[in-house]
Structures are given as C-alpha cells and as structure tokens.
C-alpha cells in the first residue's frame, strides 16, 4: 500500500511557503510565478495556515478588499488539515474528499512542514497505477510474461 511519503519521493518535498505578515498581493504574485494554487503559511517553523486560490476568491475578491494592504494572516485558512508521511495514500485521498480540500500539507509530529500533496498528485498516481495494470494485463494476454 502506497504512502504519502512514496508520493513525496516521486514528486519531491520542496514546498512553497509564505509568512503570515506577507501581503495577499505578494502571495498571489508568488503563486502566479510558480503556477501553484496554494502556499503553506509558516510561523516560527510551524504550519499555521494555508493560503489558497479559494481564499483569494472568497475572502479578498468577493469582499472587495485591497490585496496590497491585506495580510495573509487575515484571510488564510487557519484550520489546516495535515497528514503524516506514513499515511496511506487512500486515506489521504479520503481526507481530501471529505474535507473538500485540494492541498494537504505533510507534517511531522510537531507540525513542521515536510511536504505537500495535492489532488493532482493523487490523480497522477492513480493514472500511473492504472497504466501499469493495463501494461501487465496486455503482457499477460499476449504471452510476454
């Protein structure tokens, strides 16, 4: 059974993060530059929030707030759901589905950030598993195994 750490081993553990006192404009510029949908918010080395495209839409744009003067801490999602590296991928997928989230920070026991997985990572792994199964079945049916 694949774990979250197995996903991180393939994709890498580099995560874009930002501090609580950054402006929303700065955060949005970083997200655009790196073509990502979320930044993990870090304070004193610990995960304290996540700032996503959804936060921008709901808490900034919809409320007509100025992103140049608004701090990430004011609009980030504070109730961050994290997972541990040893969590099975299927359980991580279930958590994301149930909580209706697209990004899941991977944290150690002290809430220190060790990686980030997204719904895209889970989809890519699922497709790779299906392609592998199709390949094995094809080889089996044509007598190459």
What's this entry about, in short?
The chain is α+β, with helices and mostly antiparallel strands and 145 residues long. It has helices at residues 4-11, 24-34, 53-61, 72-75, 89-99, 119-141; strands at residues 17-19, 38-43, 46-52, 103-107, 113-118.
What percentage of the residues does DSSP assign to strands (E)? 15-25%
Mean pLDDT: 93
Dominant shape: elongated
CATH class: Alpha Beta
Tally of individual domains: 1
Name of the CATH homologous superfamily: CBS-domain
* Helix content class: 40-55%
Strands of the widest sheet, in order across it, are 1-2-3
Which stretches of 5+ consecutive residues score pLDDT under 50? Answer: none
For the record, the CATH architecture stands as: Roll
- Taking Cα atoms only, what radius of gyration do you get, to the nearest Å? 18 Å
Described by strand count, sense and barrel closure, the largest sheet is: 3 strands, mixed
Distance between the termini: 23 Å
**What's the number of extended β-strand segments?**
5
Structure classification: alpha+beta
Annotated CATH topology = CBS-domain
Q: What is the H/E string?
A: HEHEEHHHEEH
Number of helices: 6
Q: Can you describe what's shown?
A:
The chain is of the alpha+beta class and 145 residues long. The protein contains six helices and five strands. The model has no long low-confidence stretch (mean pLDDT 93). The chain is 46% helix and 19% strand. The protein has a single domain, classed as CBS-domain (Roll), CATH 3.10.580. The chain starts with a helix and ends with a helix.
């Amino acid at each position: 059974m694949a774990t979250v750490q197995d996903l991180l081993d393939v994709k890498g553990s580099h995560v874009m993060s930002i501090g609580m006192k950054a402006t929303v404009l700065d955060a949005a510029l970083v997200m655009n530059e790196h073509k990502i949908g979320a930044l993990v918010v870090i304070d004193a080395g610990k995960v304290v929030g996540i700032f996503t495209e959804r936060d921008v839409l709901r808490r900034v744009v919809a409320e007509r707030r100025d992103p140049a003067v608004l701090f990430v801490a004011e609009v980030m999602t504070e109730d961050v759901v994290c997972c541990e590296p040893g969590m099975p991928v299927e359980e991580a997928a279930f958590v994301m589905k149930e909580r209706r989230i697209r990004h899941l920070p991977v944290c150690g026991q002290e809430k220190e950030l060790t990686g980030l997985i997204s719904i895209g990572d889970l989809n890519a792994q699922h497709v790779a598993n299906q392609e592998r199964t199709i390949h094995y079945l094809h080889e089996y049916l044509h007598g190459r195994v």
